[in-house]
Design goal:
mainly alpha; single chain; about 500 residues; about 75% helix
Length: about 500
Amino acid sequence: MTGTARPQLALLVSAAGAMIVALDGTVLLMAQPSLGHDLGATVGQVQWTSTGYLLAVAALLVVAGRLGDRYGHLRLLRVGVLGFGATSVGIALAPHVGWVIGLRTAQGVFGALLQPATLALLRLAYPAHRLGTPVAVRTSAIAVAAGAGPVIGGVLVEHFGWRAVFWINLPLALVIAALTLAVRVPAPAPAGSPRPGLAGAALLALALALGVHTLGEVPLRGWTAPWTLLGLGAVTGLGAVFVAHERRATHPIVPPAVARSVPVMAAMALLLVTSGGMFGALFVATFSLQDGLRLDPVESGLQVLPLTALMILGAPAAGAALRRYGPRRTAIAGTLLVALGIAGLSSLSRIGPAATWQATGAAFAVLGAGFATVMVTATGAVVGDAPPEYAGVVGGLKQTAANTGPALGIAVAAGLMGAGPAAVGSVAPPVPGTGSALLTLAGLAALGLAPACLLPSRPLRPPGHGRTDPAGPGGHQAASADLAGPPRG
C-alpha cells in the first residue's frame, strides 16, 4: 500500500457503491406498479424491468471482476457508477416501457462493473487480518439501504411519481465518482492479471444468464415444465463446456489458483444456500402474512423490520466474532441461526394474528442476525483469502453467489407451494403448505454447515504473529500460498 493510501476513504467509497445498488433495487419495488400504469405496460413487461437488470448483472459479475484485476478497480468502479447514474437518467426520461427494459439491462451491465470493484477496494486498502470490520461496515450499509428503500420509494412515488426513484441515482453517482478520485490504492500487477479470453467469458456469461432466467421462470412454469427442464439441461451442458474450456485455456476467466482455493469455493457455496434459504423464506412469509393472516402490506412490512435491524446491528458483532473465533466457528453459528430463524417462521401456518408479532418478530430477528454473520464471514473469507491481483475475480464470484442464491430459493419455495401455472393469479395462494415449505428452506440453509466447516478455523493474525491455521484442507495458510503462486518481484 502506498504511503498516501487512506483506507477509511476506500471503505466509504466501497460502502457507498454497494448502497446505491441495494437502494436502487428496493426503491424500484415501490415504483413498478405506478410505472406499469403510467406507461401502459403489462405485468410481464414490468417484471422484465427487474429481470433484464438481474440477467445482465449475473452474467457479467465474474468477467467484470477479472477486468478490474487487469485494468484497475477504481477505473471500473468510476465507469460503473457513472454509467449507473446515466442510465438512471435515461430511464427517468423513457417514453415507453421498452426503453425502460433496455436501459435497465444496460444499467445491469454498469452494476456488474461496479459491484466487484467495491469489494476489491477493501482487499487493496486493508490487509487480510483487518478485513473483518470493513466488511461488517459494508454489510451494515447494504442493510440500511435495502431497509430504507421501500420507505424512500413510497414517499417519492406518492409525491413525485415513479420517475423520481431513478432521478435520485444521479447525484449519488456523481458524489461517489468524485470520491474515487481521492482514493489511493495499489494498481493491479499486469503479470498476475492477463487479458481474459473472450470464449470463456462468453460461455460463463451465457450459462449464468440462462441459469438465472430459468430459475426466475420456475414460479410461472413449474419445475417439471419442458422449458424449465430444457433450460436446466442447457445450463448443465454450458457449465461442462465452460469447465473443459477453462482447463485448456492459457488465461482462464477464473484463475486455477482461485478455483483451487478451498476457502473461496466454500464461502461461495455457503452464500448460495443461505441466501437461497433466506430469500425463499421471505417469499413464502409474504404470502403467509398477507394471504394467510390477512395483514395489509404496511403491517407485513413492519413484521420484517426486526430482520433489517438485526442485520444492521449484527454485522459489527459478526466482525468482532470473526476476529476472536475465526471464520469456521463464526460461519457455523451464523448458518445455524439462519436455519433456526427460517424454521421459526414455519409457525406462521399454525398461529393466529394475535401471536404473529411476537413469533415472527423473534424469528425474523434470529434470521437477520444469522444472515449478517454469514455475509460478513463469507465475504471476509472470499476477499481476504485472495491476494490483491485476484481481488476482483473473487469479488465477482462472491457477488454471483449472492445474486444466484435468491433466485434458487424463490424457485424452490414456489415449487413447494405449488405456485406453478395453475396457481399464478389465484386469489388465495396455497398458504397451508407454507409450513413444510419453510422447513425445507431451513434445510436448504442448513446445507451451508458443510462448506462452513471447510473455512479456516483460527482468526487471521498480522504477519509475524504466528500461523493463522494449520496447513491442510481448508487452511488459510495453505490456500493463500496456493493463491499467491510464484514469488512476485
